[in-house]
Structure prediction request, 622 residues.
Amino acid sequence: MRKLRMTTILVLLIGGMFVALTATTSVSGARMTPVEFFEEFTAEERLHIRTAMDYAIPRQQIIDSVLLGQGALLASPIEANAIGYDSSIQAREFSIEKALDEMEAAFGYRYNDSAEDDADRKGYFSMVIMAPTSRSDRMQWAALVTKCFQEIGIDVTLKYANWNVAVSVFSPPADIAGFDYEHGGYDAFFIGWTGSPLSDVSQWFGEANWAPAGSNIAYIDDPVVDAIIDTSLTNTDKAKRMEALTDFQEYFHDEIPYFVVLQLMDLWAVDPDLKGVSLSFDYPNFGNWSYAITDPVTTAITVQTPGDLKDCNPLMASSYYDWLMGGVPGGTYGSLFTSYPDAPEVYYGDIAESWTVSDDGLVWTFNIHDGIEFSDGSVLTVDDVIFTFKQFINPDVVAWGGTSQAEWMNASNIVRIDDDTVEFTLNDFYAYGESLFTQSILSEAQMSLVPDAQWKSDATTTAFPPLGTGPYMPDEDNWDVATSMTKLILNEHYDNTIRTDDGWFNNEDRIPSIYTKLVSSAATCVAALQNGEINIIDSNVAIQPFLAQLTNVSWARLEKSLGWGHQAFYVNQRSPIWGKNAMDPRIQYPEDYGDDAPFDFASVFFGILCLTAFQIVRKRKK
Prediction:
């Protein structure tokens, strides 16, 4: 009986292996099935495919014809105005021929789109590319890239979606993270990242940062780049950190974990009477604005922006548009540290009156100002600071940003020293330590009433912003997430005199109210600015075609600077076709392959052990 039982197990095991290795499924538009791609393609061949795509992105044409010169070539996520940028590492020059060479190296034959016979125009594979509608110029270059990809034998379907729909696609629930478009995930999409002069690229890499918890939305997992990034952030020797940043840029160019399309010029069209608008760090800084008229009390200004409002809670904000409409930059919230609008790499105290840092850079001790109040009149305490930071690194609560923060902090090392003092002990030295403490501080009394599981759905976080300590507060009567219409009004509990810094904190001529609303088109925005209906056109509105109309006129002032951030094209790195971390589709999509899924040796072995243990226990009981 024992021999028969073991023989049965061996037959099942061998049979399962045979079925698993011969399973296939047909996919429309592809030369091979996903299983064949996974089994037959090497990492080198998948790199050839990514390199072909990179050659087929017409970056300079996009800058010249779509952006009308208002952009710059970029080879990696480290922007030209960021720490450690290496100008010697250049983006690949557009070439359909070189792209076809790379495809031929991967597939063994060359696509010929001019052949008369369909059989001779045999393509390679299909993919769905998504582009958010929040930038009309990005929609244009998505169409341009789609056309070029089709020229190298990729069967592309281009789909447009509003911002909130796009976010749900590239940051899906954890159980389908990394799935392709057909199964509820994505194949490829265009997105823009708001950047920083601080070259911390860790948020886009590492399995711990995979979406939806983090912003590694390409699902990149490579210990080589993780080690490079770790050196760039944690080595106490600055020279070694700079070396590592160069190594990272070379790695990015060679391995192509995702595609950097370009770096934009930020273009804002502004009412000439609006003063103090700082655009050096992408977000306009509301606290620094004033208006050159005789009766500012009656003044309201309106900002038009092309993206939807999604999350009102700054701990959960997932986009530039959430931050802008929620009044985060210099508006609704205070933080331990903040930075000068014109020098974002220079930090000074906001809620923090003073602070010390240990010699090894690990222990940060903050003393907070007395008398700072939330917009409901309640007094901010050290407990609010501790609560906020513990929630920000709580994976059950926040979105992308907190995942990166949790690499440096843990809740047990955030300690209340006394009524005015809080101490943070970091897990490791961090090259940009000050930036960890720029998080908007929330009210524990208000937000502790919301269970962790409800932070992503409760009205306190999704329908209306939580309480803050900044110079502005949201107007309940003029706040509509559904239409992305928001209004900020002056916070009567904000005291200019408490902050001792002589910067924008002491601005006594702030705009009494600030509206933001969703745009319909760039042309509509320009007409509204000319008619005095709005005061600012956000930099994400594609106003390049209207530059001549906006230049040297009495009703508009152009603000222009090299933007912080980059425009990117992501491909799902779990794809069995082009993915650096290709996943066996029979495991990823078992419902498509049924009994043909690969045999799970670990589970079988574990099952045999359990069965053996069970039999031994039975015998002993007998």
Notes: The first helix runs from residue 2 to 22. The radius of gyration is 27 Å. The chain has two domains: 22-264+568-596, 272-518.
